[in-house]
Specification:
Length: 144
């Protein structure tokens, strides 16, 4: 894997969101920003991109074309990822996808945000409550 980084001190939040969206759509495994302070106390961000080595040049080219960056740092790194699976539960008559992974003798379980948000809107409930109920139902299913 490769990690790509560049510091950006002169881009709007809307443009940063666009860049993140496009990088993810272009195959980046993850994209994030770290707030930093540059020379002359200017607020800025470090754009970080995690990608497969074979995609790195295309993503570097994109970063240089779509941002104000004059250069991109590249690091080779390793990544350990839990093998995940997905199951489906029903909450308030609606389908919720739940991702899970086994860690030792236990499971990590996470309901899909978009599914929970949809139910929260329809049921006029707090999102946090829907997420907690979906997680509990997902964990119950996995325990059986």
């Amino acid at each position: 894997m490769k990690q790509l980084e560049t510091n950006l001190d002169d881009m709007t939040p809307e443009t940063l969101a666009y860049v993140q969206e496009r990088l993810l759509a272009s195959g980046a495994s993850d994209v994030w920003y770290i707030p930093i302070v540059m020379k002359k106390s200017r607020p800025a961000v470090t754009l970080c991109v995690l990608c497969e080595e074979k995609q790195s040049q295309a993503l570097v080219d994109f970063i240089l074309q779509e941002t104000t960056s004059w250069g991109v740092r590249e690091f080779t790194c390793e990544r350990t990822v839990l093998p995940t699976q997905e199951t489906e539960i029903f909450l308030y008559g609606e389908s919720v996808r739940v991702k899970y992974a086994r860690v030792g003798n236990e499971y990590k379980c996470k309901p899909e945000y978009e599914d929970c948000a949809r139910i929260a809107r329809v049921q006029n409930m707090p999102l946090r409550q829907v997420q907690a109920e979906a997680k509990m139902k997902g964990e119950d299913r996995l325990a059986k």
